[in-house]
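cron nightly-structures :: item 1 of 1
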Amino acid sequence: MSTLTGKTALVTGASRGIGRAAALALAKAGAQVLVHYGSAQNEADAVVAEITQAGGRAQKVGADLGKPDGPHELARQVRDIVGDRLDILVANAGVSRAAPIEELTVEDFDQLFAVNVRAPYFLVQQLLPSLCKGSSIVFTSSLAARAAVGTLSAYAATKGAIDTMVKHFAAALGERGIRVNAVAPGVVETDMSNFTKTEAGRDVTLGMQALKRIAKPDDIAGAVAFLASDDARWITGDTLRVDGGSKL
């Protein structure tokens, strides 16, 4: 894969799970990585330490993306560090809520859309002065955006919005030489998918996948790093399925 040496990257939700793995993968490829966290400061410190101990460059940036001004505050911090050049934005931070339609609350719904849709939209908006020709934006979508999976209707709606946002942003920013894509994982062994730790949960997951193992965050991080690299220079407006052949 093309080197990312000399590139700067911001990964949101990078203190754990897919975001952590993506931050490590980008750093391994040579990028300077800004490790965003919401509340898990200690975990973010650990990611930064792992990158720096391996000879990479990283620092943490904190902001609550559930707040209306969260993306604006994060963008201010990022601009203070990188100035007028941000090469890679991985908008990964997200929340999930499984609930039957009858039980989902307005508060749950609003929180899902605030973090999963509003935050990445306005983060891109606020970082546009630092994004430049050759920059790559990578969103995190989901299998749930294209297939019914459990009781995730509201969460799935946020990821459907991400898939739509990818196309519109790619069309709008293409003249500036900025690429916009998304990765769409299936079930991944993270804190967000605790059911994979049960035998029943694993059976359900494996039953809908062509590849018969549970995905790890590293399985997704490689695709993120690819989309961020020059090897993906002619890919934009696309959502890349990274789901082990789920729901074929």
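cron nightly-structures :: done
Residues 47 and 53 are 10 Å apart (CA to CA).
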